[in-house]
Amino acid sequence: MAAEVHGFQTEVTKLLNLLAKSLYSNKEVFLRELISNASDAIDKLHFLSLTDSKLLGDDPQLRITVKADKEARTLTISDNGIGMTLDEANTHLGTIAKSGTEDFFSQLSGDAAKDSQLIGQFGVGFYSAFIVADKVTVVTRSASAKPEEGVRWESEGSGTFTSEHANVPARGTSVTLHLKEEEKDFLESWRLRDAITKYSDHIAVPVMLWEEKYQAPEKEGEEGKTTWDWVQVNEAKALWTMNPKDVKDEQYKEFYKHLSHDYEDPLCWAHNRVEGDLEYTSLLYIPKNAPWDLYSREQQHGLKLFVQRVFIMDQAEQFLPNYLRFVRGLVDTNDLPLNVSRELLQESAVTTKLKKALTKRALNMIEKLAGDADKYKIFWKNFGAVMKEGPVEDYVNRETIAKLLRFASTKNDSNEQNVSLSEYVSRMNPAQKNIYYLVSSSWQQASTSPYLETFRKKGIEVLLMWERIDEWLMGNMNEFEGKKFIAVTASDLELGDLADKEEKEKTEAAKTENKALIERFKLALGDKVQDVRVSDRLFDSASCVVSEQGQMLTAQMRRMLEAAGQALPEMKYILEINPEHKLVKRASEAADDAAFGKWAEFIYDQALLSEQGSLKDPNAFLKLMNELIG
To answer: What predicted TM-score, i.e. pTM, was given to this entire model?
Structure first.
């Protein structure tokens, strides 16, 4: 039967075109990726063989081999792991099973250096072979298949691949790279040994290199002999089982890349061994960049699970809460059975204890990271929005998470989110009892908001927020270290001792003096507003709208729900006016009710525009404005 020709998934074709130009700055990473894949295949076979020993057959010694053939200019990486069927080979080697691939490709700019870094962050695994090869041949046989059900897969990386059944005597997978002329140095033993030692020393099974060995002469006068033999070049010791004191930083970094298939070094890590009622070892990492699928609902996130050093499953999400889904790593415990399933994990008391312990380990790691301002800036840029899910999701650790949150504030003239709640509290005026914040649709809108006028005048710092999750976060956080959160858009700012006595008297006098004007506004606006009153927060602006503190649906939340297609009843605000503003004074001079009504409408719409960033009928607003100033 002739080999069938298949077209690569569109994303794969794009990726191969880029890899063909050798965009990776470090070409030798292809060897790390292929050995890492081989290691995963062996882990899977090891796990399955616990319940089906027949899978190992007469080949129980699991290993990875690397062999160069200078004459044929090929390099072959083989394993005796789980192997693949024809369907599996077509699927795994012909598609990229990742969400976010379109977003990934949209960010490629054509700048080789920048694109190389992006490709590395995305992780390309098997396809990295095409960095150094102009043709790749894969021969594989599933551990559960017969020799005649083996598979031969081949591609030149030009958009198509061929696959067919082939007679393959042993289980496992061999990937043969037909190297490009300019990549011949990867046929040299010293080059391969150096790369394997550098990137794959931590692989838990032997990595054997076909290497030339010199044998000294037995007697004087005789010539020495050169022979070829398999030589183990890695330690083959699971890194997480080692004493943390004996592990170098470079080893931790390379193990992270093997574990995550990330190209970048991790931001930080934590390696812990715990004995007692609960025995486990954990090795947790925080990536330098957010994975492409961080916000994908379909994508599973979690730790690798090992039981008694045996790999059990990838992405076991039961051991960390969802807001820590960016944490990579593994947990190895003796307190779970080897035949544990995802369903059993959900019901296990051990899982509950491990989740509690690992969550604290992860938060402690982030707390330590927060001590390095530069690194924490990188962390917050990538994972800040996810961390904001924490106070709502994890009530037990709410206070710890709250200390890790960062916000922009009126203390700075930039949108950089670098102010912690602890810093805010430490800077509070002694008379200040509350933490004030403003949620808007953008930093620009927040930083220029009229709601800040009284706070700027009094020198009170306000936290500025504009991310979609902020409204939800603040709706579920009532206080921090005994300080109540108050939105500056609330009808009652609860200024307490911060309220200036003279200003208070002035406001009360203004309310009395402008009682007729307020009634006139109420009559003109009717049921469009909940109430109208003289403002004690405005100095430069004509008006603003406020809502009752604790109101279930705030303006920002309404916008999100409406954007999601939910129909909501019209929201009624309290309109606050500044009688000293020339716009309000001009309105008060309107002789007839019809003219005043237009001014009242204009002043109200202006306040809505400032609060919401948009109006339902902007054309009507512009028409009214032109009429009034014409």
So the answer is: 0.76
